[in-house]
Amino acid sequence: MRVRVIFKLKNRGAYLPFHHQHILAQYLKGVLVNGGDSKYFNYSYFNFSGLKGQTKVSRNGLHYFSNFVTLVLSSDDQGFLDYLLEQIFKYDKIDLGNLEILPLYTELEKVPGMEDHMKFICISPIVPVKGAFNDVESKRFIGPETDEFSDLLYDSTLQRMENSGKFTEEQLASFSKFQFVPDVAYLNRLKERDKKFARIYSVFDNDVKYEIRGYTLPFKLFAAKEVQNFVFDCGLGNYTHKGFGMLDIANVNPTDRTEKYKFSKELVTA
C-alpha cells in the first residue's frame, strides 16, 4: 500500500539538496528508533519518495515555496506503515534539513491492479549494484538495455522477496520470468540532448558513505503479478529503504488516485 503524508511548510523558501534521500532516510530511521519497537529498527521492506512541493532551483538545491509539501511512503506491510505514521504524527514540528514542517494529514493512494507486464516510471533512481568500501564496482555504468542490468535487478528482487519470509519456496521458484526493458526512445532523446539518466549518488550505511550509480528512466517490467506488486510496494533494486528505486505506474493521473486515510492530525490529537 502507498500513503501520502501532507505537511505544512512553516518557512517557505527554505531549501533541501537536489537529492535529499539521505536526509529523509535519517529522519525516518530516527522516528522508528525513537518509537521503541525493536522489530522495526532495521526494517527494510518499505520505500519513500523525495519531498514534493512547488520548488525553485538555486545553487543550494530546491527551494520550497508551497504552503504544503508531500512525502509518499510505501510498503507491503500495513502494520509497519501505520506504526511509522503514528511515530511521525507524535511531533508537532520537524526540522528536515533547512525546512520546518508540521504533519497534517494522510491520503491513501488507490492503486490499479497489476498485470504480468507493467510500464513504470522512476520516482527515485534505481540502484542495481550495492556499494562496497573503497570499491569502484558500484559506480560502473551498466547499460539498462543489457541482460546484466536486468539480471542484477532480478537477483536483488528475488533475494529481498525470499528474505521477507512472505513467499514459499514454490512461489519463489515460479518467479523465474523477469525482464527489465528500458524505453529506448526516451534514452535516445536524452542522448541527443546531451542529458544524463545515470548519475553517482551517495548513500550512508552504518555511518559509512558509499558512492553508487542510480538510473532514472521509464521502462517495462515483465514479471509475475506478485513480483510487480512487491517492487511497486517496496521498491526496485538496492537501498530501497533509503529512498532509492521508488516506482510509479506510467500514464496514470496521480490526482485521481487518493482518498483520506485515518492518520489525520485531527484524529491523532482527538
Short structural description:
The protein is an alpha+beta fold. It is 27% helix and 30% strand. It has helices at 21-35, 78-88, 147-164, 169-174, 184-192, 225-234, 265-269, and strands at residues 2-9, 15-16, 46-48, 55-58, 61-64, 68-75, 94-96, 99-109, 117-122, 178-182, 198-205, 208-215, 219-223, 247-249, 258-260.
Written account of the structure:
The chain has 270 residues and is α+β, with helices and mostly antiparallel strands. It folds into 2 domains: 2-111 and 254-269, Alpha-Beta Plaits (2-Layer Sandwich); 117-249, Alpha-Beta Plaits (2-Layer Sandwich). Helix content is 27%, strand content 30%. It contains 7 helices and 15 strands. The chain has helices at 21-35, 78-88, 147-164, 169-174, 184-192, 225-234, 265-269, and strands at residues 2-9, 15-16, 46-48, 55-58, 61-64, 68-75, 94-96, 99-109, 117-122, 178-182, 198-205, 208-215, 219-223, 247-249, 258-260. Strands 1, 3, 6, 7, 8 and 15 form a 6-stranded antiparallel beta sheet that branches. Strands 10-13-9-14 form a 4-stranded antiparallel beta sheet. Helix 1 crosses helix 2. The longest helix has 18 residues, at 147-164. It is globular and about 45 Å long. The two termini are 25 Å apart. 31% of the residues are buried. The model has no long low-confidence stretch (mean pLDDT 92).
Give descriptors for this structure.
single chain, Alpha-Beta Plaits, alpha+beta, 7 helices, globular, 15 strands, 270 residues, 27% helix, six-stranded antiparallel beta sheet, four-stranded antiparallel beta sheet
